[in-house]
Specification:
Length: about 400
């Protein structure tokens, strides 16, 4: 049992300036706020908000530690969408004497929440906090898929200090390794070293350029459906829509596209944690970025409330099973289509019992109808090929 009071500072209501409404119709009206010294049974809740005012390892974005209070201010004022999600706001992680102390505290809190089957929503702080998120899963020895929505990969030399631009290297090189797949949505090629793109391909990770995602945003849904944890760097949103980031760029996602991606993440039954990072009130204009972040969280919760628990293997009578023969392959490629949501999955078969048991959660890969069409045209879908290669 995690002693949350050791690591958390309760929400300062004076900073969020929220007064409960008589109608009880706003987000803040339905959120239970942790009170210091109070015994909280987190198992009673579905979502836990955790602020992390930490930016000591931020690259060129000092001030993002101020984000949790600003995002809460606008989030609490939004109207609820009618779905009674049980939410607790645990307050903020107390920054440690060293940044590693903050990582440890966040890891401990998230581990406790994940074990209790509560979905943590982390409001950073800088993007290197994703390393602590990963450590929480590693502490439980859970092999995961991670998705970052980011204009950059946050890879650096293996011997470089851990910071917001290098944490992914630490995760990839972590021993023992619990990262099965990494996916990036929205990278901008001029921000990414060609060598990093080559490395991603070599590791059979999934990377999707900004223009490709914007042209076909629905193709991002299976990627997010395959994630255990999602990290969103607000720098992936164009500066005109999210100016509150020192590294903001003229190009990026529009605000409504960011909200759509967050809803896809919320819809995924597999997503068990979410992080919003790099929001910097020092550079914001009229709270525009904090407001967008609050609306993005609203859309995540809207998706979360609409989860349908349709996953092949649990209720196979709710699925249509398709066998596709591909020239040159002895075994059929097997697809599943949900009768409830029309979502698709592709099955990866493994003859090794040890690998079957170890990677069981990752052998039913979310895909799209276009992947099924490709298989019908004698083309191996990219998602099948990359997953198969990681298992070899």
């Amino acid at each position: 049992m995690i002693e949350f009071g050791l690591y958390l500072e309760p929400v300062d209501s004076s900073k969020i300036d929220f007064t409960p409404s008589a109608e009880g119709s706003r987000m803040g009206d339905g959120i239970k706020c942790y009170d210091d010294g109070e015994n909280i049974s987190v198992e009673e809740y579905e979502i836990a908000i955790v602020g992390v005012p930490e930016d000591r390892n931020a690259i060129d974005n000092n001030g993002c530690a101020l984000a949790p209070a600003e995002v809460r201010k606008y989030f609490y004022r939004l109207f609820r969408n009618g779905n009674a999600i049980r939410i607790i706001d645990l307050g903020d992680i107390r920054p440690g004497n060293e940044v590693n102390d903050t990582y440890f505290a966040l890891k401990e809190v998230l581990t406790g929440l994940l074990k209790a089957h509560v979905v943590p929503v982390v409001i950073g702080g800088s993007h290197d906090l994703m390393y602590a998120v990963y450590q929480a899963y590693a502490a439980m020895e859970r092999i995961i898929n991670m998705v970052n929505i980011d204009a950059r990969f946050d890879l650096a030399k293996s011997d470089e200090q851990l910071h917001s631009g290098s944490y992914l290297s630490r995760i990839v090189l972590h021993k023992p390794n619990f990262l099965f797949n990494f996916a990036n949505l929205g990278y901008q090629t001029y921000f990414v070293d060609p060598g990093a793109i080559h490395l991603m391909d070599k590791l059979f990770f999934d990377i999707h350029r900004l223009g490709v995602v914007r042209d076909n945003p629905e193709d991002a849904e299976p990627v997010l459906r395959n994630a255990d944890t999602v990290g969103f760097d607000i720098g992936a949103v164009r500066q005109s829509d999210a100016p509150g980031n020192e590294n903001a760029s003229p190009n990026g996602f529009y605000g409504e596209e960011a909200c759509l991606l967050m809803r896809y993440a919320g819809l995924s039954e597999k997503v068990s944690s979410l992080g919003l990072f790099e929001i910097n009130p020092k550079y914001d204009r009229n709270g525009q970025t904090a407001q967008l972040a609050a609306q993005m969280l609203w859309y995540f919760l809207d998706g979360f409330a609409s989860r349908r628990s349709d996953f092949p293997g649990s209720n196979n009578d709710q699925f249509i099973k398709y066998h596709v023969s591909i020239k040159g392959y002895s075994d059929d490629v097997v697809f599943y289509k949900s009768k409830i949501t029309d979502r698709w999955w592709i099955e990866i078969r493994v003859n090794d019992d040890e690998k079957q048991n170890k990677y069981e959660r990752h052998l039913m890969v979310p895909c799209s109808y276009s992947d099924y069409q490709a298989a019908c045209n004698n083309e191996i879908p990219d998602c099948w090929w990359k997953t198969y290669q990681k298992l070899m």
